[in-house]
């Protein structure tokens, strides 16, 4: 009898990372794979990204339309409780041999916390990381403590998980699944990307993804204005902005960028590029600017120059392609200049060699065989 594996996916971001592993699991005759889609997947505003899962041929067993009423702290807290209640029903009515979760979002925490009383075995991807400028830090470490198995993206994060849990059992340095995408996917070239997105990649492009700082959330309006003011002045570039996650105070950032795009011809906003276009944009852009984790992991594959803003990602490993910068307009403009002048010698990829999906599949085989 096939083993039943559930995959928790709450956003376009984690699904894109899961993707190479999902195809490996689907190809295996040993497993039935079920996607449990929630968070922004069911949101029209965020691109109804559950459709991308189904277009890839995966069965979406659960579609949970459960978004916060707004981006306020109260709205997020109430949504966490709502997600937990809904997943209590899901875990009570379904049987899975293993559940995979990824990352550190509040929705993911709620889904995993609801599984805890049912003693469902959880495998957590990408524990051990730290992001001091976001509540994700506490959520990620909590998910680590609630999980039985751990697949980290590099050796430093593996060691941190061991310290957190007090045990080496079930802790593996698997590398980054994003590297599998970058190693094996055929990415669109500049001409294809330009035609598809309406952004001229023959000019230097700044790829921007800026999420709220959920610890210093009251400062996000000021942060958004500072970033927008810098982008407005960068007229020698095409600026391609992908919109933020549904985190606390995300609306103020969305509004600032929407207004900016309305008055500046070099500014372009998109809700969701999808895996191929986002990775291709990362490959072909002059630099990335923002505070997204992809600026630390995926960008290190090429490598792409990165200006990382603020404290949201503080604590992650800083590779030599990253310039750290406070969220202040003049500082951002100076950091862009500094990043463009970076030169790379021999490059070490600390997140593996692009065979992470095979490694994780092998470990899952061992886990479920026992």
How would you classify the helix and strand content by structural class? Answer: alpha/beta
Query: How much beta, percentage-wise?
Result: 15-25%
Q: Report the CATH topology name of the largest domain.
A: Rossmann fold
Sketch the major β-sheet: 7 strands, parallel
Instruction: Give the overall shape.
Output: globular
Tell me the total number of β-strands. 13
Mind explaining what this structure looks like?
The chain has 370 residues and is an alpha/beta fold. The chain contains 13 helices and 13 strands. The chain has two domains: 3-175 and 354-369, Rossmann fold (3-Layer(aba) Sandwich); 190-340, 3-Layer(aba) Sandwich (Rossmann fold), CATH 3.40.50. 42% of the residues lie in helices and 16% in strands. Helix 1 (12-27) links the parallel strand 1 (3-9) and strand 2. The mean pLDDT is 94.
Short description:
This protein is α/β, with parallel strands linked by helices and 370 residues long.
Label this structure with key terms.
370 residues; alpha/beta; 13 helices; Rossmann fold; globular; single chain; seven-stranded parallel sheet
Write the layout of secondary structure elements.
Elements: E1 3-9, H1 12-27, E2 31-37, H2 50-55, E3 60-63, H3 73-93, E4 98-102, H4 106-115, E5 122-125, H5 136-146, E6 149-152, H6 155-165, E7 171-173, H7 177-184, H8 190-197, E8 205-209, H9 220-233, E9 238-242, H10 250-263, E10 267-270, H11 274-284, E11 287-290, E12 306-309, E13 322-325, H12 329-340, H13 356-369
């Amino acid at each position: 009898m096939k083993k039943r594996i559930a995959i928790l996916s709450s956003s376009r971001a984690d699904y894109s990372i899961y993707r190479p592993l999902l195809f490996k699991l689907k190809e295996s005759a040993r497993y039935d794979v079920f996607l449990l889609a929630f968070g922004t997947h069911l949101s029209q505003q965020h691109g109804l990204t559950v459709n991308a899962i189904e277009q890839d041929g995966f069965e979406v067993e659960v579609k949970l339309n459960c978004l916060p009423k707004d981006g306020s702290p109260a709205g997020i807290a109430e949504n966490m409780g709502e997600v937990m209640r809904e997943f209590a029903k899901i875990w009570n009515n379904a049987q899975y041999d293993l559940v995979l979760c990824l990352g550190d979002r509040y929705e993911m925490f709620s889904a995993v916390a609801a599984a805890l009383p049912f003693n469902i075995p959880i495998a957590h991807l990408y524990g051990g990381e730290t992001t001091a400028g976001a509540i994700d830090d506490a959520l990620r470490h909590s998910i680590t403590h609630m999980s039985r198995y751990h697949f980290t993206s590099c050796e430093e994060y593996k060691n941190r998980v061991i310290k957190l849990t007090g045990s080496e059992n079930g802790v593996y340095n698997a590398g980054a699944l994003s590297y599998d995408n970058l190693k094996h996917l055929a990415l669109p070239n500049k001409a294809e990307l330009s035609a598809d997105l309406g952004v001229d990649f023959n000019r230097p492009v700044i790829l921007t993804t800026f999420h709220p700082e959920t610890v210093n959330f009251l400062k996000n309006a000021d942060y958004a204005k500072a970033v927008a003011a810098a982008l407005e002045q960068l007229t020698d570039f095409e600026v391609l902005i992908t919109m933020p996650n549904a985190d606390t105070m995300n609306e103020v950032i969305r509004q600032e960028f929407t207004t900016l795009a309305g008055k500046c011809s070099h500014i372009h906003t998109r809700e969701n590029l999808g895996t191929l276009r986002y990775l291709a944009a990362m490959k072909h852009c002059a630099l990335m600017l923002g505070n997204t984790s992809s600026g630390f992991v995926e960008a290190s594959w090429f490598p792409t120059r990165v200006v990382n803003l603020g404290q949201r990602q503080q604590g992650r490993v800083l590779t030599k392609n990253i310039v750290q910068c406070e969220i202040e307009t003049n500082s951002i403009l100076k950091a862009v200049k500094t990043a463009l002048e970076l030169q790379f010698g021999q490059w070490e990829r600390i997140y593996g060699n692009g065979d992470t999906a095979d490694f994780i599949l092998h470990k899952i085989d061992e886990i479920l065989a026992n």
